[in-house]
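Re: the multi-chain job from yesterday

Posting the exact lines I submitted so nobody has to dig through the queue logs.
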Amino acid sequence: MASDILLEVNGLTKHFPPVAFSRGPVVRAVEDVSFAIPRGQVVSLVGESGSGKTTVGRMVAHLIEPTAGSVRFDGVETTKLSRRELRRMHARVQYIFQDPFASLSPRMTIGEILTEGLDIQRVGTRAERQERAVAALTSVDLPPDAMARYAHEFSGGQRQRIGIARALALAPELIVADEPVSALDVSIQAQIVNLLRDLQVRLGLTMLFIAHDLAVVEYLADTVIVLYLGRVMEVAPSRQLYAAPRHPYTRALLSAVPSPDPTRRAARQLLKGDIPSPANPPSGCVFRTRCPFAVEPCAAGVPALREMAPGHFKACIRDDIDTA
Amino acid sequence: MTAVSQPIARARSAGPIRRAISRFMGNRAAVAGLAILVPILIATVTYDFWWPYKPNDIDLLAMNKGPSPTHWLGSDGVGRDVMARLLQGGRTSLLVATVSMVISTAIGFFVGAIAGFTGRLVDGVAMRFVDLAMTLPPVIFLLVLASIAGTGVLPTIFVISLLSWPVLSRMVRARLLELRERDFVVASRGMGAGLWHLLFRHGLPNTIDILVVFATLQVANGILLEAGLSFLGLGVTPPEASWGNMLNSARSTLVLENYPWQWMFPGAALILTVLAINFVGDGLRDAFDPRAELN
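And the result, structure tokens for all chains:
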């Protein structure tokens, strides 16, 4: 039963219908996204705001239902599970939220927050659940006496560690981390990223790491998926993506990463305009409206993901720019 | 911005409820309301241990007599002790108000919570039903219900509870619709939480402010409704005492002019109690104000 691939996503699509009784357009948040995560690896979803990365993460964690496509977890198709099977599945995939101030209930003590999932899943006795909660707390470097306190007494970084502990308490096989550091001070970001890295290595966690910041991703991810307007633009092993990005969008993203080397600053390539509305996406390649290399045929058809090098895919018809 | 972890001194900390209580105790009007309410409650509950007269005992030598050392608040037209009837009436009024408050709060919470936490269909159906209940003119609805249910303590409780829950269910639903999208509730669902878990671990604690305030004000409202119904002869009927029917039996001009103690005391008790409960309710609302949580 244990295969190498823990999570396999195929043709995942999410359309949000307009509000009832109004004739608004359908919002195409995610369109035909496919990827796989091997056990013990970290795959990162990257894209700017509105690219659909959170929606993909929430579908993977079964928080929202996909419009179409399949999510196979450990060989089991999860989009067609009964309510009971789904509850058990929930214990195996856990989610870390972006905003540590919204993700912890202000009316529960840390102990209650950490044992909540164990209570829901009816794991062990009361004492065992307490024990596991304390263990989760210590694994994120917080003292056990935090159990009796409330979330508002902690700083942002501490709260995010509590959020991580909550996800760990259920001993999940897959963790979906939705921009876990972007709401934190820069000084604390490094702490949290290091903590996640440590935990990932120590516990052999499989992780879907969502981020808009490529600098953070470079350090954590084995494979990077670049999303734009709900579609995959480029997939590549982390090192290759940074060394030789092939999609114009990835290049623009990479050139926005601040560099400590002042001589490299000149190469910055800025994108003009905003991401188009997912309610009314451009025809053909969705990136063409902002792409510096766009040509006429880009509007004609949606470019397919093509393998350019082993494990390196891109959805772009311009191969002549690869060496640029 | 501060780096690393800040030291935390206290081992145990005050929860949101405890902080609300301390804010409540700082509110003078609310504490005054409580100071009026608690003695009234104690007196009505315990009066048969320390007051020599029973509410329906007739003293034929003391008909329509004013306040005196034996009958502190005088006696009524058939020689019954006004003090005893006042306290028994208070007991009836508070019982009707409290029980109907419990029922209407429970109905209001569950209808609102289920509408707020389940799908669009259930929500739509429940809310149209609530709309229906809210558009009925309350006085007429009350009279029709009362004439169907009959008189007495139980029907009165039934009628009052049935009239009062829709407003609460609206408020609870509105709060939960917002709560449902909050990350910590999403997290709870992501851990496999079912409806009951969401209702009691998240729904109830996060609407407790609405419930407490509604419940308090509903007691005051219930007392007034009971008095109104009884005054119209549709609530608690004589010889059983309630503040409403004491006022009713004292409404002839003869009594109004000549025996003011027969209506003044139940009237005063009614006003004082309702006012005190309203002060307490206002105090609770301020104490639970989410804006105060920020401090």
